[in-house]
Amino acid sequence: MVKKVVAKKIVPKKGSVKELKGLERKIGKVPKFFKELTVKDPEMYELVMKFENHIWDDGKLSRKTKKLIAIAIAAALRDQHAVRAQLAGAANLGVTKDEIEEALRVTFLLSGMPAYVYGKAQMDDVMK
User: Fold this and answer.
1) pLDDT tens figures, 31-68
2) Same-domain status, 94 and 83
């Protein structure tokens, strides 16, 4: 007999929901592991949130520019999960498909054709 494994849904701790929504406004999409950290390791969650907020706050570079950099890096690494996560959040920050295309051209210049093709395929799939 085969046992069916059911994934347990993680419900973020009460106080962290508002904080996660704030981060979502900054980066576009909050990774699933953040929600898991609120329950599994609250101390680590607090440290990661401080770091995330520091990185994504507007400074000399806007969040939009940082998102384009993140997409290009994820494409260069050919990390499907990271590319998709960054692309999913891009539209919420006002990043256009043309801007992503241009960032991917820089990826091509520095990381080669496979990284460009990989990022472009992910973009076309996510931003249908």
Assistant:
1) 777 778 888 888 998 898 888 888 888 789 998 999 99
2) yes
In which residue are the tokens 């390791």 written? 41
Q: Are 85 and 55 in contact (CB under 8 A)?
A: no
* Residue numbers of the domain that contains 25: 12-57
Residue pair 80/61 in contact by the 8 Å Cβ criterion: no
DSSP 8-state symbol, 121? H
Give the whole-angstrom CA distance, residue 16 versus residue 12.
6
Residue 57 near residue 26, CB atoms below 8 Å:
yes
pTM above 0.90, yes or no: no
Structure tokens at 36: 């898991």
- Answer whether residue 41 is part of any domain: yes
| 75 plus 48 within the same structural domain | no
Q: Are 38 and 45 a contacting pair, CB within 8 Å? A: yes
Q: Is residue 23 over pLDDT 90? A: no
